[in-house]
Each structure stands twice: as C-alpha cells, then as structure tokens.
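Case study.
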Amino acid sequence: MSIPVKLEAFEGPLDLLLHLIDKNKINIYDIPIVEITEQYLDYIKQMEEKNMEIMSEFLVMAATLINIKSRMLLPAPATEEEEEIDPRQELVDRLLEYKMYKYVSDQLRDKQEDASRVMFKSPTIPKEIADFKEDIDVSELIGDLTLSKLHEIFTSIVKRQSDKIDPIRSKFGKIEQEEFDLSDIFTQIQEYGIEHKIFYFRNLLEKQSTKMEIIVTFLGILELIKLGRIKIEQEQLFDDIRITYLASDIITMEEAGF
Amino acid sequence: MEIKLVEAQLEAILFTMGEAVELDRLALAIDHDEDTTRKILQCMMDKYDDESRGIQIIELDGAYQLCTKASMYETIVKITHIPKKHILTDVLLETLSIIAYKQPITRLQIEAIRGVKSDHPINKLLEYNLICELGRMDAPGKPILFGTTEEFLRCFGLQSLDLLPAINPEKLEDFKLQAEEEAEQLTLDI
Amino acid sequence: MEIKLVEAQLEAILFTMGEAVELDRLALAIDHDEDTTRKILQCMMDKYDDESRGIQIIELDGAYQLCTKASMYETIVKITHIPKKHILTDVLLETLSIIAYKQPITRLQIEAIRGVKSDHPINKLLEYNLICELGRMDAPGKPILFGTTEEFLRCFGLQSLDLLPAINPEKLEDFKLQAEEEAEQLTLDI
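After joint prediction, the assembly is written out as follows.
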C-alpha cells in the first residue's frame, strides 16, 4: 500500500487521525479502530524523519489506538446497570474538539482575509509635540514595590525552575541511539569475570549507570548463563546477584553464535 | 455648534494618532464624559458610512481607530505597494483559534487540544503580537496564561472578543444527532 | 453616484499615503483625467471646510495631502499630554526581577528562564527606563546584555543597593564570562 501524502504534512497525531477518518469516509463517532490503527501505523512506518520529539507524539497516539483496540477485543467486565462505556469515547471527544478548532480557524482565516483589506495610517504627531512627551516617572511606576518584593518574585521564579525539573524524567535525557552495544558489554563482563572470578552484579555497574546500561548488562548476563559460562546465585529476593565466572577464556558474541 | 467642533476634534485626534485611542483618553481630550464621547463617536461612525467617504472609524475593545474602508482596497493597491501581512500557516491559525476561544489558556492546555508540542507556534504568535501573556495561573508550577491582543482584533476585523465567530451550535447539534443515530447501529466492528 | 465613489477613493488614498501625492498619480488611480481629478479634489476641499471636520486636504505644488486643520493643534497637544497609565504587570515584574538579579543578561537567557519569548516585556521595561543595554556579549551574534538603570536603583534607595549584585566594571567582565559560558550551554541544550 503506497501512501502518497508525506507525514510531515500533518500537524500532529490528531491531524493524521482526522485525515484517515476523512479518507475512509467514516464518522468520528464510529471509528473502525482496527483498520484505522493499521493505517495509522503504516503512516508512522513511513516516517523518515529522525525527529524523535515529533515521532514520539505520533507513537503515543498509536499506543492509544492499540490500547482502545485491545480493550474492545477483551470482554467487557460485567457491570450491573451501568451502560458499557465505549473505549473509543475519550478519543472521539478529543477528535471532536480538535475538529471544531480546525473548523473555526477556517472561519478566522476568512475574517483575516477581509480585515487585511483595511489600511491604517502611522501616527503623524508633529515633532515638537511628540518631543515634549513627558518622561515616564520611574518612581511613580515602581510605586510601593520594594526590593524585597522584587527579590521574592525572583526567588519564586528560581524555585519554580528547579521544581520544573522532574527528578526522574530529567535523567532519561533525550531519546538517543542506544549507546550500549550488547556485544561490547558481553565481552566486558567476561574480561571482568576472568579478573575477579567471583563478583556481584552490582560490581559491573560501579559507575553511575543509566537504565539502558543496566538492562544491557543484565541481558549480557542472561546470555552468558545460557552459554554456561557463568553461574549466578541469589540468596534472597533483591539480594545482590553473585556471579561466578566458570570459563577461562573470552568469546565474542559472534563466536557464541548470536 | 459645539457638537460639530467636538466631532472635528475627534477626527483630528484619530487622524494624528493613527493607532487605536482608548475611549477614556478621547473623553479627557474633548472634555466630555465617556458616555457622551461614545455617543458622538457612534454618530460620527454613521456619517462615515456615507458612500462619499473612503475612511471609517472602527472600534477595538473600547478603543477607536481610523482606517480605510475595505472596499477601497483595489484603488489603494493601484497607487501604492501594500506590504504583505504575516501569513499565518495552518499551525499558527489553529493555535491562535484555540487561544482566542479558550483564553486565558496555558501552553499545556493548548498542547492537550492539539496533541502536539506547541512552543513554536506560541512563540511565533507572541512575536507577531497576536497573543500576549496574561499572567500566571494560580496552580502548581504557575504556568503562563495566554490571551489575544488588540492587534489580533485588528487583524481579524473584530470589534471585541464577543464577536468571534460563534462556534456554530447547529453544527454541533448536527454532530450529536448523527452520533446518536449511529450509536443505535453501533456494532463493535473489529 | 459615481462622483461619490471617486471622492471616497481619493480620501482613502490620501489617508493611506499620508504624504503629498501628485495630481497625475491620483488621476491614474481613479481613472480620470487630471482636470477632472483636480475639480473633484477642489470640491472635496470645500466639503472638508465644514466645521465638523478636523482634517483638510491641502495642495502643495500640484500635490495633495491630508492633514489636520491648524485649529486642531491645541486638541492634539492635549491628547498627547494625557499621561498613559503605566503599570508594572506581573509579566513585567517577573522579567524585571530576573534582569535585576541576573544582570548582565541576554534576551535569550531571560527567555530560557521564563520559558517563553520575552521581547514584549523587555521592550516595555526599556521604554519605562527601568532597564538599559549594558553592552554586547562577546559571543556569536553579539547579543545585547541588559541590566537595570541608575534610575531604577535610585528609586529603590541607596540603602538597598547591596541587595542587588553591584555592577562595577570588573564584575561586569566576570558576568560576561559567566554569561558566555551559560550561552554555550544554552545552545547545547537546544
């Protein structure tokens, strides 16, 4: 299926969804979620743009569609008298609101077109009059504003700024290409194993590790267990994982047949 | 006649100032109260309606400004080059509509409706002086509230925000009726 | 009536142009010969003589211009002398506090702190003479550095001066360096 319209032409995920609904000549209130989801995903696949920020918004919408799809596939929980809530309702509401603003923005465009036919004139205040325009009285302007009040305002801005930084999400940073290559980590774990023989999972993550690094390292460990090159023990849940390196050499992932 | 003199004064003021002048300032300048001033202006606006006049007085949110009549556009274009106004892209217009109808509104609220990040259009609209900051919302994080400006009213030929094109209630009713009909037939067409 | 329309067109042209427009250009714009155009203008001039009009058409060496009547001078002086109401809105206060405590600071840095384009409040504060340009940062684009004015400090009284970072020339250098570093980070963040 070829899609002639470039994805960049859409202003956002709702815009794309509206386009698909229009194209299929279906009513917003009765979106065939499965079809639309598939078409939607098709569009996203075409997305060549590497702009993760924009991409992520489209992905969120795709996830919403899939979520609705799955909720519709599942049998609705038995409710007493309550009417069954169509899982599509929230999406329908959003689409309707968005559609309405697109509709009024067309009307505004016409208004602007009409209004642009009217000409204004720049001020022609005689220079000598304009010149004795009185200066703005700063002290009057400042009025009862005090430095401590100004300081208070400033402090609240600074505070607001630090509040804005989400302690968890700020560490995620930007969405970037995976920095940790599994095959590199795979080799590194074995090097560490030869040196230490017995060590803990925590030892592998001595530096400040990102979530991704932890995950990749853990994957490396799983692969090595599968190959029988290490043995792991954990006394109790959440205890540190004790790793014993059984092999005496290092193999690469390629050699291991991955 | 005194009233004639006042009309002349108001015309001279509006002509000289060029920009929109608030009613209270006009009233002060002609030594009349605001009500009387408004009535005189109204009366002048009727006179300007005459087909021999090429200019008109428009009202913008309680301020008055002199400008040409729209019907004069073709003639003016003949004699002078008219600088193009900022052309608003669909994105800008869509964002501006949301702000116009929902003001005061925060960036997050705009983004919730559009489903997409909106820093760029908001900053562009600020730059074009079509929207302005109205202050901050008294809520966690104290987000900035945005609203439209006098320039917005001027650019869209609106006397006041009350005169924004109504969100057609019939249209919405139509939507709802359609939906109800279909709801009856609604099958989970998966 | 056709003549009325032509009068309207001439009024609209003279209003938009502001300056004197030569007879031949006016004639071309309204599709009439110069003689007719001159007669129509003459006729309009008589109408403008009416005491209810504050503007007039004057002839200058074969060119025509719209301007206020001399008798309106006092009124115009009066309106320009009505002090505008200046108030420090929350937006202005917020921007002013950032500039006061972070000076010297560039527009981009202010915007980074506020999270929104800030040309408007900065321009207003400049107009109010609460802030001024301190120079330019030695960075790409040579951005302007803003700081508070002496007037601003005076209004807060000398006693409070120590509450603000003092701006002596050496310090200013330090600040510039700091600001440059921050500017580099700023661009990295974008």
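Observations recorded in class. Strands of chain B lie at 21-22, 55-60, 63-68, 105-106, 131-136, 144-148. Residues 183-190 of chain B have pLDDT under 50 and may be disordered. We will return to this complex in the next lecture.
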